[in-house]
Amino acid sequence: MARNKKKSLGFGCEHQLYSRCPICCVVPPHMLENIAVNGSPEQRRWAFHTLSVSAQFRGRRNVIGNINFAVSPGEKSRTIFDAKGTEELPGKPVRHEGDPPSGDDAVDEAYDAAGATYDLYYEVFERNSIDDKGLRLDSTVHYGVKYDNAFWNGDQMVYGDGDGEIFQRFTKCIDIIGHELTHGVTQYEAGLIYFGESGALNESFSDVFGSLVKQWVKKQTAQEADWIIGEGLFTDKVKGVGIRSMKAPGTAYNDPILGKDPQPGHMKDKYMGFEDNGGVHINSGIPNRAFYLAATEIGGYAWEKVGKIWYIALRDRLRSRASFKRAAKTIIQVAGELYGQGSLEQNVVEKAWKEVGVI
User: Fold this and answer.
1) Strands 157-159 and 137-141, how do they pair?
2) Distance from the CA of 20 to the CA of which of 41, 109, 157, 276 falls in 20 to 30 A?
3) Domain 24-188: CATH architecture, name and number where available
4) 142-189, pLDDT tens digit by residue?
5) What integer pLDDT is reported at residue 16 of this predicted model?
6) Over the stretch 103-129, which tens digit does the pLDDT of each residue have?
7) Cis peptide leading into 90, omega within 30 of 0?
8) What percent of the chain has pLDDT over 70?
9) Domain 24-188 matches domain 195-355 at the CATH topology level
10) Coil/strand/helix, residue 260
């Protein structure tokens, strides 16, 4: 396929090739590379800067100075920092747990979405924060100047304000915040290595639970949800609905500057190149669609059954080098243990993985 031959500009968002705790960016490098090739001179400068800043994290960690205080079970502990346009972490603390709204949209969106993500994990999955031990949820907003990304760096969340022409501020999308915080959950549980199929699973679990956070807040059933990751992130100038579609991978955007969404929804179209850490953001479309198919066929609220199956697999069963096939077999097994061998739930989950060509 043509996308397998695309030459990389040599940047990425990974920390190390086989890291269990990578720098996990929500905007994949291929999108930024397309801007660097197709955009206006100013857009190209923003894209190159975003790519280079992300690349600086490879092989090192910024000193962020946060202390992970243990808190009582069920007690949220959020701190929002303001980098004030610098690239220094964590920045100045501007809102702590229980403080009233600050009036800064990015600060308050980061605070509210971190709380919603905590609440989903605690109330639905009985998990106490990212590490299940009450980890403080630190977030930095206004990172850099026109920085076109958001990422989890192994310790905290970081959000750029976007360039205003292609991307808006990254705190606008609650599913992006849920996505990035879930990278922390994966870090503490399965530790899925950020390369190839295990890396694509890492990205997919973040999309799954990011979408569930949005659905849970909106009280949407699986049929009512849009299954778009980053809906509302693009400006009106972009021809696209978001950065990924779990329902129909490959259809989220088709834009002269960003290019066409390269995600496959079936194993026959799997990306086989080495860009994007072996396609971690690209091939995540395959397990994403499996989750979507299972959730919509079972119906109701996706977090109640299918979300529980995926969560237990991530928490208890999957190991760091899991392949798509291993994940599928594990998730099918968990469905049988929860709802009975040969149950509707197990049969639907198995059917979903078959439909995307994994088994």
Assistant:
1) parallel
2) 109
3) Roll (3.10)
4) 999 999 999 998 889 999 999 999 999 999 999 999 999 999 999 999
5) 38
6) 999 999 999 999 999 999 999 999 999
7) yes
8) 88
9) no
10) strand
Question: Is-catalytic flag, 49?
Answer: no
Q: Which residues contact 326 (CB under 8 A, 6 or more apart)?
A: 318
Longest Cα separation, the chain = 58
**E-only strand ranges, 61-166:** 78-82, 92-96, 137-141, 150-152, 157-159
Q: Which of 33, 109, 180, 203 is catalytic?
A: 180
Domain residue ranges of the chain, discontinuous segments joined by +:
24-188, 195-355
Cβ-based neighbours of 43, under 8 Å, separated by 6 or more: 35, 163, 165, 166, 257
- Angstrom distance (rounded) from CA 147 to CA 114: 20
What number of other Cβ atoms are within 10 A of residue 219's Cβ?
A: 8
**Alpha-carbon span 23 to 332, nearest angstrom:** 30
254 bridge partner residues = 260
Q: Provide the CATH topology of domain 195-355.
A: Neutral Protease; domain 2 (1.10.390)
- Enter the tokens of residue 108: 């308050």
Instruction: Tell me how far apart the alpha carbons of residues 306 and 222 are, in angstroms, rounded to a whole number.
Output: 10
Q: Are 79 and 141 in contact (CB under 8 A)?
A: no
CA atoms within 13 A on the CB side of 218: 18
What amino acid is encoded at 190 in this protein? A
CA dist 190 → 91, 194, 293 (Å)? 30, 11, 23
Mean pLDDT is lowest, of 70-74, 75-79, 161-165, 228-232, for 70-74
| Residue 200: its H or E element | helix 196-218
Contact 214, 181 (CB under 8 A): no
Nearest partner of 174 among 224, 126, 217, 227, judged by Cα: 217
* End-to-end C-alpha distance for the chain, whole angstroms: 22
What is the arithmetic mean of pLDDT over 282-299? 98
